[in-house]
Amino acid sequence: MQQLKGIKILVVDDEPNILQFLEMGLQNEGFEVQTAQDGMTAMTLIKAFQPHVVVLDVMMPGMDGFEVCRLLKKSENVAVIMLTARDEVDDRVKGLTIGADDYMVKPFSFEELLARIHARIRNQFPTLFGEVVLGPFQIDDRRKEIRLEQRVLELSPTEYELLKYLVLNHGLVLSKNQILDRVWGYDFGGEKNIVEVYIRSLRDKLNDKDHQLIKTLRGAGYRVDLP
Predict the structure, then answer these.
(1) Which run of H or of E encompasses 159?
(2) 137-140/131-134 β-pairing
(3) Could you list the residue range(s) of the whole structural domain that residue 181 is in?
(4) Is beta strand 102-105 parallel, antiparallel or unpaired with respect to 79-84?
(5) What dihedral angle (degrees, nearest 10) is formed by the CA atoms of 135, 140, 145, 150?
(6) pTM value?
(7) Final residue of a domain: which of 107, 125, 143?
(8) Three-point CA angle 196, 96, 172, nearest 5°
(9) What is the pLDDT of residues 143-172, one digit of tens each?
């Protein structure tokens, strides 16, 4: 529980039983939790509570979950996990298009929701966990240090941010544009091949001559696969 101290979650759902169940379960895991039964109340709470994760129901009276998500992603640094009773592709696509970070269909298991919350926090707020262990990598964001199988890697600040981004998003294909935006910033005016240069440098430092840690997917980008 100590590891989760200070991590805030807002649960938004118009079903009181679900709110109570999730509030109790998440509090028992060590999270700080607040709840709302409608979109307008949620938007008011978010300003004061400043949650790290919002678990957000889609179908609510008044302002629905899609609208809440859209407004949140315009102004707040928050991870959004959307809940819906409908397993429809169009709903999932719409939610992800407006910025939702994850999507779950009711009924769902609490254990799965908890795993998804942890994944979102690792990706979006890695410093809250202090040190993150993923496969052979250990990321300590407070020390700006990454270890590979207990060996501290000698990384420049940019190499650190790039490798952290790749590892935290392991299993996902990240395009050069995504990497440039996240690591170098939206206003970067240089050449895209800077990504290739830094990937090559990382592979040398990881002793990844066969590209087993950082894979290249031609025309798509790069992916880290972890055991």
Answers:
(1) helix 157-168
(2) antiparallel
(3) 130-224
(4) parallel
(5) -40
(6) 0.58
(7) 125
(8) 30
(9) 889 999 989 999 999 999 999 999 988 888
